[in-house]
Amino acid sequence: MIVASIVIALVAIxxxxxxxxxxxxxxxxxxxAGIRIPSVMSSAAAxxxxxxxxxxxxxxxxxxxxxxxxxxxSPVLPESAQSGFVIAAxxxxxxxxxxxx
Length: 101
What we know:
- The chain is mainly alpha-helical.
- The chain has helices spanning about 1-25, 40, 45-70, 80-100.
């Protein structure tokens, strides 16, 4: 469970940074990183605007996921509760991806 918590925490840290880099134009339109739907990839302006619009939802989902993953490290929690926090963190990340898309 610790590995899952660490992975979720790393994704929660890196996702908003990636979206922000795309929104400000540091990462240009590409097929590997960022939001890869046709309307966002249609032009550089659409790329920046789409990622700018996605940034608030990405930040909220990432913060919630990071907090839940951090709570799952608590040694006083039973293993079932730790698993529940990890699952909730993963749900927040997936939810943010759905909202952003």
